[in-house]
């Protein structure tokens, strides 16, 4: 793996991961997509019939496998929470996509299908974001601010960091 992308829901992990892997001409892996293929249903439908703990167990297993793949890996917003050791132990650079609350709200309201958004509502989501922030920062090699930047600009910033390593 050349880079791992972490960050809160709506920070742009999936979008930037695609952009980045295209620019670098390497494989793109999206952990949520890998999980969807594994469980055979969408994450939101899985959450309706299973506990979050069951989801986290599958997420951890798939993360462990995905760490051995080549290319770019974008993760889910909750992936770092119980897996900090995996991120700390790797030599692969970890990029945190950061955004202020207002940006996250704008991006998330454009879309549906995130079970935690449905469950917690927007106030709850922003509380969760604040709660997770220290854990994200603790495992990041680089923090990339994404407010008012296109996914292409964010991707270019990551490429510059990778080239100056
Ligand atoms: N830099 C950006 N600027 C504007 N919109 C963005 C940016 N990055 C992502 N988006 C949009 O925000 C939404 C969430 O992006 P997504 O990549 O799915 O985030 P994540 O994978 O982190 O949950 C999508 O509608 C996407 O098009
Ligand atoms: O933050 C979270 O706990 C989650 C984020 C989602 O991924 P995105 O960050 O790609 O939306 C997905 O893994 C699941 O719905 C749980």
Automatic annotation (TrEMBL):
Its EC number is 2.7.1.71. Mg(2+) binds at residue 14. InterPro entries: P-loop_NTPase, Shikimate/glucono_kinase, Shikimate_kinase/TSH1. It is found in: Cytoplasm. Its main location: cytoplasm. It is an enzyme of class 2 (transferase). It holds the Pfam family SKI. ATP binds at residues 10-15, 114. CDD domains: SK. Its cofactor is Mg(2+). The keyword Kinase applies. Keywords: Amino-acid biosynthesis, Aromatic amino acid biosynthesis, ATP-binding, Cytoplasm, Kinase, Magnesium, Metal-binding, Nucleotide-binding, Transferase. Substrate binds at residues 32, 56, 77, 132. GO terms for molecular function: kinase activity. Pathway: Metabolic intermediate biosynthesis; chorismate biosynthesis; chorismate from D-erythrose 4-phosphate and phosphoenolpyruvate: step 5/7. Binds 1 Mg(2+) ion per subunit. SUPFAM superfamilies: P-loop containing nucleoside triphosphate hydrolases (SSF52540). Belongs to the shikimate kinase family. Monomer. PANTHER family: SHIKIMATE KINASE, SHIKIMATE KINASE 1, CHLOROPLASTIC. HAMAP family: Shikimate_kinase. Catalyzes the specific phosphorylation of the 3-hydroxyl group of shikimic acid using ATP as a cosubstrate. This is Shikimate kinase. It comes from Apilactobacillus timberlakei. The gene is aroK.
């Amino acid at each position: 793996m050349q880079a791992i992308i972490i960050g809160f829901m709506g920070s742009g992990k999936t979008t930037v991961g695609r952009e980045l892997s295209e620019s670098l001409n390497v494989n793109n892996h999206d952990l949520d997509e890998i999980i969807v293929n594994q469980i055979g249903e969408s994450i939101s439908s899985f959450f309706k019939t299973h506990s979050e703990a069951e989801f986290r167990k599958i997420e951890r297993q798939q993360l462990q496998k995905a760490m051995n793949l080549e290319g770019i890996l974008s993760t889910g917003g909750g992936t770092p929470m119980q897996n900090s050791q995996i991120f700390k132990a790797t030599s692969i650079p970890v990029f945190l996509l950061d955004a202020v609350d207002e940006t996250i709200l704008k991006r998330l309201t454009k879309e549906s299908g995130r079970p935690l958004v449905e469950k917690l509502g927007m106030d709850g989501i922003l509380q969760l974001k604040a709660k997770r922030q220290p854990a994200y920062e603790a495992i990041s090699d680089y923090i990339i601010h994404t407010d008012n930047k296109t996914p292409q600009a964010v991707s270019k910033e990551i490429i510059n960091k990778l080239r100056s390593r």
